[in-house]
Amino acid sequence: MAKSITPNQIKQNNRSLIYHCIYKKRKISQQEISYELHLSRPTVTANLAGMENDGLVMKNGLIDTEFVGRKATAYSIVSDYRISIGVEILKKEIKMIAVSLYGEKIDRATFDITFEHKESYFETVCKKILEFKNMLGIRDERVLGIGFAIQGLTTPDGQTILYGKILSCTGLSISEFSRHLPYPCTFIHDADSAALSELWVSPELSDGFYLSLSRHLGAAIISRRIILSGKHGHNSTIEHIQMRTDGTKCYCGRHGCMETLLSLESLLQENETLDDFFQNVRSGDSSASGRWNRFLTDLADAVHREKKKSVVAQLKYQPTQERKKAAPKKSAEKER
């Protein structure tokens, strides 16, 4: 026998519906909320008063509506009622950013801290995170969690580094950080993190192949607004696909990997900055122009290869029935 819904559950559901309606619309009046959700005005008014008192929503000016009379009061959520902090772990520095419930930047900071697999390093990083949070005047209960973007493959639960050759951090546990912080913490592959930010700012984006051309190469496949990771977290690890068998030796131990051709480390000379490089290209320097042309040629080749790979990955991700529809039909002769 199905359990009946209690009045308290109905109230909680109405509150949730109203909050998410305001979140989605960003700025909306009581009348519009009532119309959108088919809820009575007294129900909407009571919930708005309660959420405003709790600090969840706020009055945000006036808004023109289709209803006759004076302009209605507009409501918006308090976007920094909860925040998240992202921390990028690099070889010689850490970068931090605090974002609102809309994923919008509140503030950012960079600290020169060289990575070491030592307790002192983890303590220092966590101390800087707390200083950053305190500088923003944010109470602990307002922090949803900390995401650590790292140059390495992570377990599906984001708790351990499966492969971290660049930082020599294979096997690193998130507990090394979380034991010093009073918030939920998780690891995320840096390329996946960047792709997720693209999904935040592009709600219309459904499928795509994200390529990160940075100090090191990274990539992510987006299918139906989900980052595909594969069974073992190796999906889109294009950096170790060999394009040449006699090329530069990669940190993985092989030669001619995409990492050795398409990362900034492969493009720039020792002590050369990206600004210096492009200045040399614009001035007609033959060495810089030659490196740039080779880089673009290799990049075009890599994109062509990975376009095929991402299509195959998306087909594998589709439910069985959809894969059957997408696959070419067999001839009647073969079916017999």
Overview of the structural elements:
- The chain has three domains: 15-77, Winged helix-like DNA-binding domain superfamily/Winged helix DNA-binding domain (Arc Repressor Mutant, subunit A); 83-192, Nucleotidyltransferase, domain 5 (2-Layer Sandwich), CATH 3.30.420; 206-321, ATPase, nucleotide binding domain (Nucleotidyltransferase, domain 5).
- Helices cover 40% and strands 21% of the residues.
- It has twelve helices and 13 strands.
- The strands form four sheets. It has a five-stranded mixed sheet.
- It is elongated.
A few lines on this structure:
The chain is of the alpha+beta class.
**Structural class of the helices, strands and pairings?**
alpha+beta
N-to-C series of helices and strands: HEHHEEEEEHEEEHEHEEEHHHHHH
CATH class of the largest domain: Alpha Beta
Mean pLDDT: 87
Order of strands, widest sheet: 6-5-4-7-10
CATH homologous superfamily title of the largest domain: ATPase, nucleotide binding domain
**Approximately how much beta-strand content do the residues carry?**
15-25%
Which architecture name of the largest domain does CATH use?
Answer: 2-Layer Sandwich
Number of helices: 12
